[in-house]
Amino acid sequence: xxxxxxxxxxxxxxxxxxxxxxxxxxxxxxxxxxxxxxxxxxxxxxxxxxxxxxxxxxxxxxxxxxxxxxxxxxxxxxxxxxxxxxxxxxxxxxxxxxxxxxxxxxxxxxxxxxxxxxxxxxxxxxxxxxxxxxxxxxxxxxxxxxxxxxxxxxxxxxxxxxxxxxxxxxxxxxxxxxxxxxxxxxxxxxxxxxxxxxxx
Length: 200
Description:
Distance between the termini: 37 Å
Number of strands: 6
Mean pLDDT: 94
């Protein structure tokens, strides 16, 4: 499926699953903006790699917990292209610990990044996609939402919340022909999962 002329936005796009989405979307013809939080080197390296192939890719630095920044990024894209076709919410973190020893910071950082960050970008694109009566949003969930491991109550809760958010949005957006889906990978070999995989 070619995506020539489509405009895409990918959060968490400098590494892992988000990076793979950026590469695939760009190579299928979409103009892609990747959002990264702190790994400027990885983001710039990916932009350099793909633009060398003649592909349209750019990076924007943002913490997905910042809703105002999310809206700024979306507004800039819409001003530039007059549309926004694809959103992939891939930004996420883990901060594992047994519930009895988990700090409020561990809980809050994971919920605000994984769930609230997804909400911020969904909300930011909502008006434009509903106005143009087209668009596709993919939210990265996890099998942990249904099959949580010990020490992952915060992560499981964040991904379960994404499932609920996605179901609710799908009903709201369907009359405007905007597709909303969640993808729930299992254990994938990424930087984020390295510590968990090394426990196996």
